[in-house]
Amino acid sequence: MKISVALCTYNGEKYIKEQLDSILNQTTKVDEIVICDDKSTDTTMDILRLYENKYPDIFRVYTNEETLKSVKNFEKAISLCTGEITFLSDQDDFWYPEKVSVMINHFLEQPEMMAFCSNGFLMNENSEIIIDHFTKWDVFEKYSAKKPHLDTFNFLTQKGNFSTGATMAVKTDFAKSTFPIPEVQDFHHDEWITLLATVEGKMGFINQKLINYRVHSTQQVGGIAFHKDSKYFKQIFDYFSFNDQNDFKSIKSRIKAQVEWHNKFLINFKSNSTQYQLLKNKFDIELKKNNTLLNQNFPLKSFVVQNIDKLLNKRQLKK
After folding, report:
1. 174, burial (CB in 10 Å: exposed 0-12, middle 13-18, buried 19+)
2. What is the pLDDT of residues 148-172, one digit of tens each?
3. Which residues contact 53 (CB under 8 A, 6 or more apart)?
4. What DSSP state is assigned to residue 35?
5. How far, in Å, CA of 53 to CA of 73, rounded?
6. Which residues neighbour 174 within 8 Å (Cβ) at sequence distance 6 or greater?
7. Which domains does the chain possess?
8. What pairs with residue 310 in β-bridges?
9. What pLDDT shows up at residue 221?
10. Counting Cβ atoms within 10 Å, is residue 128 exposed (0-12), middle (13-18) or buried (19+)?
11. What is the Cα–Cα distance from 101 to 19, expressed in whole angstroms?
């Protein structure tokens, strides 16, 4: 099985060596490392050329002619990968030596799956593991352990993305089939790939911590780390917990989330009919299910709320 790494860089001179060395030090070796640099102005490209010259059979380094930014740069990097499995990589993390081996074994054991993500440790700017924080992955691991048949699509669209690109590996053909990745505000490539993989339940989560994920002041995308205050942990856990009780407030909340996803996202992405129809069908099923529950269990409340929502233009699907 040929294994690729899609890595994007931008002014990453401070940490890129640590990351590249950890990828090269895997117990299961990768076959290619495809790097797309987004017009760095520091010495990142000099460092990359050194690795490319030292490992010409593994490294393929590209410099963008114009700045693409994160989403489109990852789309480009993945498009250039030729392996069966592509690992996504940030420029400033650290992979444990068994990361590739563990994730490849999961693909072999569950060949129907399209992608996997994993748990990970946090580390600071000095590459020290942060022990006084937990992550959204810890919350998802704790919650999913209680719900072995958790619907990951509903969790993602109603409570938040449990998958982070830095921890992901994906079947390359599947990743390419998700292109073009839509450019929607506050929406990233990892969330898009996860969204499409979860539609049919083909996104897996590995509880093992396989990377050190760096948290620092210049990080482009955050929202991963939370301080280990017991009260705050409970609040975060409660937020991520998918409320599957059929009470009025819960059903209404689910409908609101599904409508918001449709309006924020689907109406911006009708250019690819296959992906659009796949997601529309899934959202339609979930909306119909929850609207039916609301009407059957709370007919009077449902009638009142639906009419008020129409007057106030709340929870309404945009065309």
Report:
1. middle
2. 778 899 888 887 788 999 999 999 9
3. none
4. E
5. 23
6. 114, 115, 197
7. 3-240 (3.90.550.10), 248-312 (no CATH)
8. none
9. 43
10. exposed
11. 17
| Residue 273 CB neighbour total at 10 angstroms | 9
Measuring CA to CA, how many Å separate 75 from each of 69, 199, 299?
10, 20, 46
Phi/psi of residue 51, each to 5°? -65, -40
Is residue 81 within 8 A of residue 34, CB to CB? The reply is yes
Strands (E), 114-234: 115-123, 133-135, 169-171, 203-214, 225-227
Count the Cβ atoms, other than its own, within 10 Å of residue 160.
14
- The Cα-based distances of 193 to 94, 183, 268, 301 in angstroms read 22, 13, 16, 37
Tell me: the pLDDT tens digits for 48-77?
999 999 999 999 999 999 999 999 999 999
Beta bridge partners of 213: 122
Q: Is the pLDDT of residue 124 over 80?
A: yes
For the entire predicted model, the pTM comes to: 0.91
Candidates 157, 186, 187; CA nearest to 255 is: 157
* Residues 235-289: tens digit of each pLDDT: 766 766 666 667 888 888 888 888 888 777 676 666 556 787 888 888 888 889 8
- Interacting residues of 301 by C-beta distance below 8 A, sequence separation 6+: 248, 294
